[in-house]
Amino acid sequence: MSPRKSVAETAATRSRIIDSALTLASTEGLEGLTIGRLATDLEMSKAGVIGHFGSKEALQLAVLAAAVERFRLRVPARAVGARPGTERLTRAFDEWIDYMREGEGHGGCFLTSVASEFDGRPGPVRDAVLDALASWSAYVAAELDTAVETRELPPRTDVEQLAFELNGVALAANQSIQLHGDPQAPTRARRAVARLLGAPRGGIPPRRSQKPPLHIKKK
Known about the structure:
This protein is mostly helical. It contains nine helices and no strands.
């Protein structure tokens, strides 16, 4: 076996483990991940699974990184084509609500669930969750700043407060979708976002394929 093929196969196996772990963690939580369960599901040895990461915590961090990337591609990347400001934020939250409904096969947003799971547990996983949420908050705040600059929102808009309220709507929607199974939750969440942001001028343009950003940031 050539070294190049060996590296490629190792990377493919690692990706397969992460995909399986993300599916499992979506229903069992990151703490619910067990090397034994993954090994059984993947028809691998426990040593073969853990050997790609070194520890359960490293596996959890890899799964979280994969979830963050999926969120980036699924939510802010699909809002790239919308006009910066309230229109883009409306699109982004619309995509996030759709993502909550799709979930990872069970409904709900994985990152939101992990944030609740680790909010009181200091450590690298909690730090990584905070970093991901900080990136999202920065994205929201940047678009709100743009909306203020372009006078879509009043000059004295409290951007931090508005971002807080928008994210609060998303958290409430996630709980209603995942815990209560409320079919009206997506509609209610969209109405709340629209009320907070106001109707974008000209409406939201049709969705179209865009090259996703590498990071959550203002375009």
